Sequence to fold (256 residues):
Amino acid sequence: MVFLRKYVLPLMLTGGLLTSAALMQWLADRSPSELSVVEDQTRREAGFLFARGLSLMGYRNLAASWLWLDFIQYMGDTQARSEVGYPLADDYLNQITDQDPFFFPAYLYATYALAFSAAQPEVAVDILEKGAQFITPDNNPNAFSLYFRAAIIYFLFLGDEVAAREAFYNAADWYEAAGHGSAQGMRDLGDNIINNPLSENVRFSTWLYAYQTTFEAETRELILEELNQLGTVRVDPETGELLEVIPPTPDNLPDD
Fold:
């Protein structure tokens, strides 16, 4: 058994890594026009095998970083995404956070990649709540973002007002625990959701709060689209700073 662990297993892992790397390189050398969607997915799955090999050899953080870089490329491949969507997005984010449970950007990206783009809000919430088991105000001052984004998804994508309020309250507690100041506004937003979930003003306020606490350009663009369907919001194209905010008029509110 010692011989197997010391000599045979490393050779098998090394062989698997080399095979995966060779396949990825062969596919990467082909031009986008030559690379079919199926071949692209094959390359991505070979990347998963490569990362698992790194993990088994003890390089878990390296495996997470490798997958993260490949995931960013995957999301940026607009041609493939327009043809087949985002079938591997949840695999990427789950594997990244399995390898490194403290990989904070992967949890935050779940909001954009899964809730907005892949239309998988349930999976996005699962990943965000998974992150809250490892990332807390004790080790990350921005840990509150996990619960805040989960609250947004619960309300605006899943229509679960009770879960949304609970998540907003958790986000407020963590925001204050990290020393950022009072987060009563988050609790008030959670209460407003419960009291008037169909109000366009409440939805507008929730999206606006999301915009002000989100800094990824892609996510902000999507949030702006939602805001401008409800009211009017103008921003500085360079900085993203809010220039004008006009909420829905009372005439646009549904009857309670």
